[in-house]
Amino acid sequence: MWQNSNITEFILLGLTQDPLRQKMVFLIILIFYIGTVVGNTLVIVTIKSSRTLESPMYYFLFYLSFADSCYSTSTAPRLIVDALSTKKVISYNECMTQIFALHLFGCMEILVLILMAADRYVAICKPLHYPRIMRRQVCLILIVLAWMGSFMHSISQTILALRLPFCGPNLIDHYCCDLQPLFKLACTDTYLSNLLLVTNNGAICLVSLTILMISYVVILHSLRNHSAEGRKKALSTCTSHIIVVVLFFVPCIFIYTRPPTTFPIDKMVTVFYTIGTPFLNPLIYTLRNAEVKNAMRNLWHVKTMSDS
C-alpha cells in the first residue's frame, strides 16, 4: 500500500490503561460482539429460510444485518485482543484497511436505513403502487447502488488518510484507526483535510438523518387514514426504524460534524455506534416484529424436528 510516511506502525492507547478496567473491557466487548454476530446471523438465516419474509422490507433488513456484523467486526475483534495486550500495535497497512472497512460498512448501514425508510413510505403512502415500485429487480438495483456509493465514500476517506504525512509520534489516542485521531499525529496542517472530513461524513450523516426524519413524519401523518389494526402494525415497524436511526445517527453526528477537536468521551461514543448499535439492532427488529419472531420460532421448530 502506498505510504506517505516514515512510520510503519501505530500504537493504540485503547479505551483505558488500567489493567482491571482492561479486563472489564475485554469481557464486555466480547459479550457484545458475540451477541452482535449471533443476533445478526440469526436474522440473516431467518430471512433467507422463511417464505413469509420475502417482502422488500426484509430484503433490506437482510443487508442491514450483514452490514451490522461487518461494521462491528471492523473494530471489535482488535479491541478484544488489545484489551489483554500490553502493547497495542497496529501496522500502517492494517490501520488504512480498518479505516476503509469502517467507512464502507458504516456508509452501507446509513444507505440501507434510507432504503428501508423509502420502502415504508411507499408501502404506507402509496399502497396501490407498492408491488410495482418495490419489485425485486428494483430492490436489487438499489442495493447495488448502495454498495457502490459506500465503496466510493470509503475510498475517498482512505485516500484522505493515505495523504497524511507522519514523521513524529505514533501513539493513537483511540482504540481504532479513524481519520480524526490520525489528524492529530500528522506533521502538516490538517485544516483542509478536516474540512473535507466534515463535509463528507458530516453531510452524509446530517442529510441522511434529515431525509429519514422527514420521511417518517410524512409516514406517521399518513397513518391517520388507515384502520386501527393497520396503524398499530405500521406504527410498530416505524418505531423500530426510528429507534435504530436515532441510536446510530446521533453519535455519528457528534463525532463527524464539529471542528477539529477531540473530547475524552469520543471513545465511548465511537464504541456505542460501532459496537453497541449493531448489537441492539437485531434485538429491536425481532422483539418489536411479530413476523420475524414467528419465522424464528418456525425455523427453530423445523430444526428441532429434523434433529429428533
UniProtKB/TrEMBL annotation:
<feature type="transmembrane region" description="Helical">
    <location>
        <begin position="201"/>
        <end position="223"/>
    </location>
</feature>
<keyword id="KW-0807">Transducer</keyword>
<feature type="transmembrane region" description="Helical">
    <location>
        <begin position="268"/>
        <end position="287"/>
    </location>
</feature>
<feature type="transmembrane region" description="Helical">
    <location>
        <begin position="57"/>
        <end position="80"/>
    </location>
</feature>
<dbReference type="InterPro" id="IPR017452">
    <property type="entry name" value="GPCR_Rhodpsn_7TM"/>
</dbReference>
<keyword id="KW-1003">Cell membrane</keyword>
<feature type="transmembrane region" description="Helical">
    <location>
        <begin position="235"/>
        <end position="256"/>
    </location>
</feature>
<dbReference type="GO" id="GO:0004984">
    <property type="term" value="F:olfactory receptor activity"/>
</dbReference>
<keyword id="KW-1133">Transmembrane helix</keyword>
<dbReference type="InterPro" id="IPR050427">
    <property type="entry name" value="Olfactory_Receptors"/>
</dbReference>
<feature type="transmembrane region" description="Helical">
    <location>
        <begin position="138"/>
        <end position="156"/>
    </location>
</feature>
<feature type="domain" description="G-protein coupled receptors family 1 profile">
    <location>
        <begin position="39"/>
        <end position="285"/>
    </location>
</feature>
<keyword id="KW-0552">Olfaction</keyword>
<dbReference type="InterPro" id="IPR000725">
    <property type="entry name" value="Olfact_rcpt"/>
</dbReference>
<keyword id="KW-0297">G-protein coupled receptor</keyword>
<feature type="transmembrane region" description="Helical">
    <location>
        <begin position="100"/>
        <end position="118"/>
    </location>
</feature>
<protein>
    <recommendedName>
        <fullName>Olfactory receptor</fullName>
    </recommendedName>
</protein>
<feature type="transmembrane region" description="Helical">
    <location>
        <begin position="24"/>
        <end position="45"/>
    </location>
</feature>
<dbReference type="Pfam" id="PF13853">
    <property type="entry name" value="7tm_4"/>
</dbReference>
<dbReference type="InterPro" id="IPR000276">
    <property type="entry name" value="GPCR_Rhodpsn"/>
</dbReference>
<comment type="similarity">
    <text>Belongs to the G-protein coupled receptor 1 family.</text>
</comment>
<keyword id="KW-0716">Sensory transduction</keyword>
<keyword id="KW-0472">Membrane</keyword>
<dbReference type="GO" id="GO:0004930">
    <property type="term" value="F:G protein-coupled receptor activity"/>
</dbReference>
<dbReference type="GO" id="GO:0005886">
    <property type="term" value="C:plasma membrane"/>
</dbReference>
<keyword id="KW-0812">Transmembrane</keyword>
<keyword id="KW-0675">Receptor</keyword>
